[in-house]
Structure to design on (113 residues):
């Protein structure tokens, strides 16, 4: 636990803005997230991962809403589309977590019906 006591009134030295001279560009999580797309094909009972840049997926995990790990795969193919069977899963909301070799981590919610 952290407690702090501050005197009443204005404190003009509490915060400051600093500028960095490097030319690093910050990436947006939304841009990284759009690299991999995950959706459920209910007619074929398949979860599909669209991987247009053919990134190496080192881990795929599917969790139910209670946090229970339902499916776990390591080192999936480099294909632009990967399919994983969901025929034995109950109807509900699931969380998909995918990690790529270059450090990209995506978390998506899908509904299996």
């Amino acid at each position: 636990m952290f407690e702090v006591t501050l005197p009443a009134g204005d404190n003009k030295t509490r915060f400051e803005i600093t500028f960095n001279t490097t030319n690093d560009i910050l990436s947006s999580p939304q841009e990284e997230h759009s690299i991999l797309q995950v959706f459920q094909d209910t007619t074929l009972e398949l979860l599909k991962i669209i991987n247009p840049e053919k990134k190496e997926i080192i881990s795929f995990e599917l969790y139910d809403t209670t946090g229970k790990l339902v499916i776990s795969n390591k080192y999936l193919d480099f294909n632009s589309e990967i399919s994983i069977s969901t025929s034995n899963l109950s109807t509900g909301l699931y969380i998909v977590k995918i990690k790529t070799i270059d450090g990209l981590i995506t978390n998506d919610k899908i509904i299996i019906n």
